[in-house]
User: What shape does this take?
Amino acid sequence: RLMGKGSTFNIYKTTSKIKDGGRLKLKIQSIEKVEGIYDISIELDRYDIGLESMDIKKKYIPKLKDIIDKNSLALIDLIAFDLDYDGEKPKLSLYFLRDNIIDSKLSIEGVKLREGQKIYLKYIDVFGKENYDLYQINKGKVILCQEY
Assistant: This one.
């Protein structure tokens, strides 16, 4: 895997907070620019959702599986970030909507974060399923926090 080869690119799987909600996968790269300050690059990778557990008519499942295979990110309605999450209520200041720019080419560049800083990510899919993830800068790596 990429982590084993010492790459600065890491792929993180999210932990779903809603049992039948999907999981958004990201590619995150961190490069130390100044001591303790990191330049972060975030790219969308894919969106995984279990169609079998959802209340969808069987005739639509093949079409949805085709969409997931070609561009699973088309199933995301909203992605929002709090790039300086304080552990309280998230302040979602950076967001993207499906109608204009959510696809596999969406990337966020030039985000400057310090050691210990947290990123709150919220996403909602076209089925109305809402999920969130919390990431933190830890020793130069962006890791998924399991503490909340």
In short: Confidence is low (pLDDT under 50) at residues 1-16. The radius of gyration is 16 Å.
